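Researcher: We're teaching a course module on how sequence relates to structure. For the next exercise, students receive a sequence and then see the predicted structure as tokens, so they can try to spot secondary structure elements on their own. Here is the exercise chain.
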Amino acid sequence: MNKWTKALLAAAISASSLNVSASPAELDRVITVVNEGVILSSDVESLKKTVALNADTANLPPEDVLEQQILDQLIIEELQLQEAKRLGIRIDDTRLEQAIDSIATDKSISVSQLREELKRNGITWSSYRDQIRREMTISEARNAQVRRRINILPQEVESLASQLNAKNLENVEYRLSHIQLRLDEGAEKDERDAVAEKANKLVSDLEAGSNFKALALANSKGPKALDGGDWGWMRLEEMPTIFADQIKNNGKGAIIGPFRSGVGYHILKIADVKGLQSVAVTEVKARHILIKPSIVLSDDGAKRQLSQMIEQINKGEKSFDDLAKQYSADPGSAVKGGDLGWQTSELYVPEFKDKVDTLPEGDISEPFKTVHGWHIVEVLERRQADRTDAAVQNRAYRMLLNRKFNEEAQAWLQELRAGAYVEQVGNLDEDS
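Model: And here is the predicted structure for the students to work with:
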């Protein structure tokens, strides 16, 4: 909501001032017809005052140029409002109040303090609310029409993410450990299979916690074998290309490989990292049972049914797994005993997220309601997961979306203007 705060406050000041001081004739004077709508002289004067409040008057263009720019903007706004009406877009009071709450929060004041601030500036609460609703309506119409024109290909995201990764990794240093299993290019199949099997076994041992240095001393044929495979600290551009190509967004402790080159199989471990910005998130493994109220099952009935299930589980009469398979109305998880798999809690609806975030591991929640129905949930386990790669992908997608949105928004507005009936029927400089 940040983008609305300054402009809306200034607009509301202008509108309020005009409502107090303007004569009835000035308010009623039509300047321009836009399809089935009109722009009044009061609209022009209101926006002119808004511009004056937000800009250095010394940098404003001549009066006639400024008024034409204002009229052009009002025409575009009116066209977008007409498009919103055609699409059936309506900002209800609940969303409006949420926007106002957000504006007040951004200003570090309460809503009541915001009202007082507006009142001191001669702004009526109703005019302020109307201006916010107008801006939200325009924004939603623009988003709805422009987003459907945007197509972002996976290859575009991958390409930009690779560029971002390369920049992020410029000053990162890695301490690498390396095991090389030698295999000649002309080796027989039996030998190739044996070396591949040995490489996979070494990776399994390392992932199970075996000491890398000991395994390197015993098995590696690489140039650092006698050092326990330790290559020391290196930036990407300093290490062998076959190493750099495998690093990607892996962090400290990562086991990479086995991967093949012309001299055999390689296994890498990132022993340590300096300068890498990583994104860690908490993932939760949970399971739930969902009961949906219906014509024959009330909310109280659904809640009572789940309470009985909790009692059965606690007494050992039934298992969570069996009850979920038999009764849960969530088909995707019911077949797995209610198991939702490893997920970040942000994927869940607010009430479910709150339970998953606060419930101790191994405890079953009391029955609670969401938009989907009544649930009980059990948190089985939590873990920290590295989402650096996903974060870079998301950043690349947002950058592409913003770039294409701005381009398509301009094209859409030009098309709206070109297809509209616009006629100026009054002069801006007429006396009221």
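Model: If you want an answer key for the exercise: The chain is about 55% helix and 20% strand. Confidence is low (pLDDT under 50) at residues 1-27.
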